[in-house]
Amino acid sequence: MIQLINVHKIYKGNGVQTLALKGISLEIAESEFVAIMGRSGCGKTTLLNIIGCMDDFDSGEYMFKDINIKELNSKQLALIRNKRIGFVFQAFNLINEMTVFENVEVPLGYAGMPRKQRKEIVLEMLEKVGLIDKVKNYPSQLSGGQQQRVAIARALSNNPEIILADEPTGNLDSKNGTEIIELLQSLNNKGTTLVIVTHDEKVASYAKRKIILNDGIIVKDTGAY
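Structure for Macrolide ABC transporter ATP-binding protein, as requested:
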C-alpha cells in the first residue's frame, strides 16, 4: 500500500541545513497497524507528514498504491489527503466555533458531498465512536477523550484507506488514552490501515509492528517486508 524508497528530507533555515530523514526505505501493507517510535527530533512526525502527503521530500520515491506521489500537483495531493487518508492529531484540531456534528462534517463538505448524505455519514461516525448524544455540543463542552473521539470520527468520515495518528493519546490521561488506542485498534481489526507516531511504549504495544527511528534513520523494524 505504502512504499518509500531512499527518501531524504532536508529542512533549511537561517543558512543552516538539517537532514531530517536520511534514506528511509519502508513498506506498509494494507490493514497493518504500525507504530513509529524514537526520541524527540528523530524524524517521526516528518515521516508521518510525508506519508500523509502533508510535507514534500527532497529525493527518493513514494508510491501510494499505484500512485507516484512526487508526480502530483498540489490539487491532486489535496484530493488524496481528503479522500484517502484520515488524520488524528495530539491537539485534536477541532474548530471551537463548530458543534461536534459540524466538526465531523467538515471534510465531507470539502469533498462536495450532498447535505443529506453528509448527515447520514456524520451520525454513523459519531455512533461508531460513542458520541451520538453529543451532536449539538461544542468542543469546549467535552472532555479531552471525547474531543479525540470527535477527531477520530472526523478522520473516518470519508472512509479513508489509512489513518495516520500523531501522538493521539499525548494530551490524555491514562484512562482516556487507553480508550482511544483501543478504539483505534478496533478500527484496525476491521481492516483500516493504521500508522501512529508515539513515544509511549504502552501505546506502541497495541501495534503489530514497530519502527524505531534515530537521527532520521530506521534502526529497527519488527516487521519489515
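Strands lie at 2-13, 16-28, 33-37, 59-64, 67-68, 85-89, 162-166, 193-197, 209-214, 217-221.
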